[in-house]
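Purpose: get a first structural picture of the assembly so the mutagenesis plan has something to point at.
Setup: two entries, given in the order below. No constraints added.
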Amino acid sequence: KQEVTQIPAALSVPEGENLVLNCSFTDSAIYNLQWFRQDPGKGLTSLLLIQSSQREQTSGRLNASLDKSSGRSTLYIAASQPGDSATYLCAVYQGAQKLVFGQGTRLTINP
Amino acid sequence: NAGVTQTPKFQVLKTGQSMTLQCAQDMNHEYMSWYRQDPGMGLRLIHYSVGAGITDQGEVPNGYNVSRSTTEDFPLRLLSAAPSQTSVYFCASSPLVGSGNTIYFGEGSWLTVV
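Result (structure tokens, whole complex):
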């Protein structure tokens, strides 16, 4: 059974820092991997989708990498801002239709 | 473009009552799904559908029923609510999950069973 783990569960950093969020998964036979952002009381917003044949994706200050052989993905946030405060969720596609989520990392950026 | 719309946003049920969580999307997506989110557990897949008339079970289907009579709607039914079903429920849709298309989530439905 696929298990997805995100470490740390919570992270608090001062504004302006670069930071890395980690995601690991137990079964390397994944289809794709996706990072989401969730604000309190809201749904999930897709940040980056990495297809299985790709190693990384970039969008603005965000960069996500994927290493299937080691079962790891990282989300790099450059020059963090208070508006980046949210919970970040990693999810792997187990087959084409099923997402398996990690528990999330709650990120707080302090002004 | 409304995206994925869930109703109600908040609901309190008594044990044994039934109810339906509604989900509608206006993007003509084939794929729709329901997840529940519990503290410390992440989101877990309840049921999903790859098109009208086609549904399948996810990781935690017990206690829930679904149907997909139209492309737009994918309601989730709780036949006899239990306190263990207290959770936040999210509906999602996508043109085709895993093909590089973004999946869209609704705002969530907060359900409390007392």
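The interface with chain A takes residues 4, 31, 33, 35, 40-45, 48, 50, 56, 58-59, 90, 92, 96-100, 102-108 of chain B (CB under 8 Å).
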